[in-house]
């Protein structure tokens, strides 16, 4: 009979309520034991018996004769509960196995313990307890020792680390102390050496000065007995170059003279016809006879026309022309530039200055066929705009120069970045519409060596930082940012790291520059020349500059916060100084001249204009030591007299240019005599202008009057710049 475990609950309840498993069990057990001959009658008889006794009292063996009933222990009410799945799994074969296993194990344990108690002799409990206590004590001692050992281990380890750190600190202190001692000794030796050198220089200065003075006394005595010399004509130089502009005007006006020159000198390479009155007839001679002409200057020649430029293509033409200067030729139109392009396609260098009529169309007409142009100079061409740069994109420009242009914007620098990757020189002076974006566009140029952005007043720290971050800063050698008043110290700290090849730096009139910025500039070891005029730096900056040791040129004009002490400190560390400009620093005295004479004997340029406290004795010391002086400006030095000129004649034999305006104590006779000694001289015995800030005796003017005239002077300068 199949199991009813998986039957429906209703069927299972039915079987259970009517005791069907018990009835079947009793009937089956009776059939299996008695084995009647007629099973059906037997079953009928037994069913009647069960009905009489009731289903509640049914047992599994009630259908078996009592004499035949087996002696079996009953495990459950009926086995059919398991058969029909009505036992709810209270007794299963698995449970029976577990029960038997537990019972067997319990018997084994009981008998084994009894056997052990009988076999093993009894032990004293006190000894067992003592042994256990001993084991516990030993274990406790072990734990305490392990605890103490771990703490001791960490303590020893920490002490070792502290000892190691202390030894390292002591060793560092020892090295630092030894280094301090070494540096102190080196510093003392260096100080002593510097002091010995300074004393030596002072001693040599005194000796040379005494010798020079004694020599001058002898010369003065000898001059009283000198006989007048005969006038010897100066030798005529036999130069190979001949500048036609030096001829007399009457000779220049004769076109026949040019004809004779052209026929007699066919091998001329350089021809300068600037400021002459040549006409179209002269222009016709150029291509016929000067076949090898390479450099031609027609600057400020206004008598030829566009037709004259057309003659350049006649005959063999001027096809070898490389350099052309058309400055001031305002009569040339777009047609004339087109004639030049047709005749001189090999032009590489083009100069067109002072040309207010020059337009973008002129440039476009020229570059249509002159694609070899590498340098252009457009100074005083206000109508040139960004379109000209776009037209010049067909050329491989390496040098551009613009000044005083208000139409050029940042867009032209975008053309430079994209079309002129090999450009090396950029001059964009007084171009007011240029901003920081231009510097950012120039930063990728890898061959840029010269950058001049003077009077580009919109430039600031942001643009300069962008420029220094690019590859252009690595090769830059000259950087001129004069009058860029928005620049400050913040943009200068990267100069020393980004410009390792910088030789010339101009920060003139950058009023936001302070001593901190100069400290950054000092780290540019390649720097040879620096212009800090018009800034607010003080003696601290000059002391920092004295550590550079390699500066040859320094300009400090209108730096009102520096004093004699700062100049003296700078001179002590700048023995190779050749150029110094301290003009209009009226607070300086003659002490700076003595410092220059002692330490800077290689001086070739000196400007002390506007320094009213300079005296003849100081200039005597300068003349005695600085024998290589070529250019000297003492304008406004009102205490100087004719003796200064005598000292210069005797000591500064190489002096070529002398400026001494507003020197009221210098006579006209002495100035006239001095003019025959130097090549160029500027002399004016008038009183100093009011904007100098002092009168003819060197005394300061009243404060309010001085400020008034300085402001008016600055306003006039600004109007002229605009």
UniProtKB/TrEMBL annotation:
Residues 254-366, 471-681 form the F-box/LRR-repeat protein 15-like leucin rich repeat domain. This is F-box and leucine-rich repeat protein 13 isoform X4. It comes from Erinaceus europaeus. InterPro entries: FBXL15_LRR, Leu-rich_rpt, Leu-rich_rpt_Cys-con_subtyp, LRR_dom_sf. Pfam families: DUF7885 (PF25372), LRR_6 (PF13516). Transmembrane segments: none annotated. The gene is FBXL13.
């Amino acid at each position: 009979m199949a199991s009813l475990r998986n039957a429906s609950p209703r069927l299972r309840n039915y079987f259970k309520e009517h005791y069907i498993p018990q009835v079947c069990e009793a009937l089956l057990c009776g059939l299996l034991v008695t084995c009647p001959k007629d099973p059906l009658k037997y079953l009928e008889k037994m069913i009647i018996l069960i009905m009489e006794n009731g289903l509640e009292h049914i047992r599994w063996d009630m259908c078996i004769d009592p004499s035949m009933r087996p002696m079996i222990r009953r495990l459950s009410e009926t086995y059919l509960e398991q058969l029909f799945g009505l036992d709810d799994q209270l007794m299963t074969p698995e449970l029976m196995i577990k029960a038997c296993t537990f019972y067997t194990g319990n018997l084994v344990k009981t008998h084994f313990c009894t056997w052990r108690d009988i076999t093993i002799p009894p032990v004293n409990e006190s000894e067992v307890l003592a042994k256990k206590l001993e084991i516990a004590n030993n274990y406790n001692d072990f734990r305490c020792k392990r605890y103490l050992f771990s703490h001791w281990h960490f303590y020893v380890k920490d002490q070792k680390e502290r000892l190691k750190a202390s030894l390292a600190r002591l060793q560092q202190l020892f090295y630092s102390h030894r280094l301090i001692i070494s540096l102190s000794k080196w510093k003392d030796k260096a100080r002593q050496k510097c002091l010995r050198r300074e004393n030596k220089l002072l001693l040599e200065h005194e000796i040379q000065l005494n010798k020079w003075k004694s020599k001058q006394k002898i010369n003065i005595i000898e001059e009283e007995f000198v006989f007048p010399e005969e006038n010897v004509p100066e030798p005529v130089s036999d130069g190979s170059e001949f500048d036609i502009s030096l001829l007399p005007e009457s000779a220049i006006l004769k076109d026949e003279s040019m004809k004779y020159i052209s026929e007699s000198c066919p091998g001329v390479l350089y021809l300068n016809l600037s400021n002459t009155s040549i006409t179209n007839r002269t222009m016709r001679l150029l291509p016929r006879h000067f076949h090898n002409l390479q450099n031609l200057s027609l600057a400020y020649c206004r008598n030829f026309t566009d037709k004259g430029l057309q003659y350049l293509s006649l005959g063999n033409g001027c096809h070898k022309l490389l350099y052309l200067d058309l400055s001031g030729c305002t009569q040339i139109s777009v047609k004339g530039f087109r004639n030049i392009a047709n005749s001189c396609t090999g032009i590489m260098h083009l100069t067109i200055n002072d040309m207010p009529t020059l337009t973008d169309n002129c440039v476009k007409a020229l570059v249509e066929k002159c694609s070899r142009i590498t340098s252009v100079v457009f100074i005083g061409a206000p109508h040139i705009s960004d379109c000209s740069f776009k037209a010049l994109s067909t050329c491989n420009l390496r040098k551009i120069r613009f000044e005083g242009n208000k139409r050029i914007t940042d867009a032209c620098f975008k053309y430079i970045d994209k079309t002129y990757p090999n450009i090396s020189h950029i001059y964009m002076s007084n171009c007011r519409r240029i901003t920081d974006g231009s510097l950012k566009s120039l930063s990728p140029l890898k061959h840029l060596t010269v950058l001049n952005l003077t009077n580009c007043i919109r430039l600031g720290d942001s643009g300069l930082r962008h420029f220094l971050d690019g590859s252009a800063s690595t090769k830059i050698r000259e950087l001129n940012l004069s009058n860029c008043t928005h620049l400050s110290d913040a943009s200068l700290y990267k100069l020393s790291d980004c410009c390792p090849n910088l030789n010339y730096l101009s920060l003139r009139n950058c009023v936001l520059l302070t001593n901190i910025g100069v400290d950054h500039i000092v780290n540019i070891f390649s720097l040879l020349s620096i212009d800090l005029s018009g800034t607010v730096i003080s003696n601290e900056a000059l002391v920092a500059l004295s550590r550079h040791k390699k500066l040859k040129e320094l300009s400090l004009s209108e730096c009102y916060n520096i004093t004699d002490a700062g100049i003296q400190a700078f001179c002590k560390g700048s023995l190779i100084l050749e150029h110094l400009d301290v003009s209009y620093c009226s607070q300086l005295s003659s002490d700076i001249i003595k410092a220059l004479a002692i330490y800077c004997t290689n001086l070739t340029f000196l400007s002390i204009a506007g320094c009213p406290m300079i005296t003849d004795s100081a200039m005597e010391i300068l003349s005695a030591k600085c024998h290589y002086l070529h250019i000297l400006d003492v304008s406004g030095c009102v205490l100087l007299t004719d003796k200064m000129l005598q000292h210069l004649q005797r000591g500064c034999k190489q002096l070529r240019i002398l400026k001494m305006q507003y020197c009221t104590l210098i006579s006209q006779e002495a100035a006239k005599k001095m003019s025959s000694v130097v090549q160029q001289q500027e002399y004016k015995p008038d009183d100093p202008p009011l904007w100098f800030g002092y009168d003819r005796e060197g005394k300061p003017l009243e404060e309010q009057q001085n400020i008034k005239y300085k402001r008016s002077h600055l306003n006039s300068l600004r109007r002229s710049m605009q």
